[in-house]
Amino acid sequence: MKSRSTLLALLLVLLSLTALGKTKIDGAWVLSEKWEGYMGIALVIHDESFKYWFYSDVVVPGDETRYPIAGRVEEKDGEIRLKAKADARLYDTMWRQVQWQGELCLLSQKDFESYVKSGVMPVSRLLYRVQKFDEAHPIMNRVKE
């Protein structure tokens, strides 16, 4: 029963986004302040392009990724696809628009699938829009106001 109500809620969110037409996703998006690990994500979307920053305490030998990573954005029915060079390392290339506590957020496809299966929103993995963002000194976690 719980999964049925979760699926119904997700369907209503997606239908409401579709009914509104193309949702404006331009802006700076950063990882939730609820994330308790040493990781951060920043995503700036402008028109049909994006810039992406990431940091983590997990070190991948040989990875010398230079940020920001840039690419193109495709949006359709609440889904956002990031298209970068084939060797670009992104947390996820597919993101979903979701409403959480009255706020439009982005959630990676892999975390969205986890949410659908468990019925538990992975709040620490949400990206929130921030008003102030300096690309020269990108913040990658939302600061609780």
In summary, what is this structure?
With 145 residues, this protein is an alpha+beta fold. Helix content is 19%, strand content 35%.
Description:
The protein is α+β, with helices and mostly antiparallel strands. It has one domain: Lipocalin. Helices cover 19% and strands 35% of the residues. It is built from 2 helices and 8 strands; from the N terminus they run αβββββββαβ. The longest helix has 18 residues, at 2-19. The protein starts with a helix and ends in a 15-residue tail after the last strand.
Could you report the average pLDDT, rounded to the nearest whole number?
Answer: 83
Number of helices in the DSSP assignment: 2
CATH architecture: Beta Barrel
Structural class by SSE content:
alpha+beta
CATH C-level label: Mainly Beta
DSSP, total strands:
8
Poorly predicted residue ranges: 7-22
Strand order of the largest sheet: 1-2-3-4-5-6-7-8
Protein traits:
single chain, 145 residues, alpha+beta, Lipocalin, eight-stranded antiparallel beta barrel, 2 helices, 8 strands
Please give the structural blueprint.
Elements: H1 2-19, E1 27-31, E2 39-46, E3 49-56, E4 69-76, E5 79-83, E6 94-100, E7 103-108, H2 109-118, E8 127-130
Antiparallel strand pairs: 1-2, 1-8, 2-3, 3-4, 4-5, 5-6, 6-7, 7-8
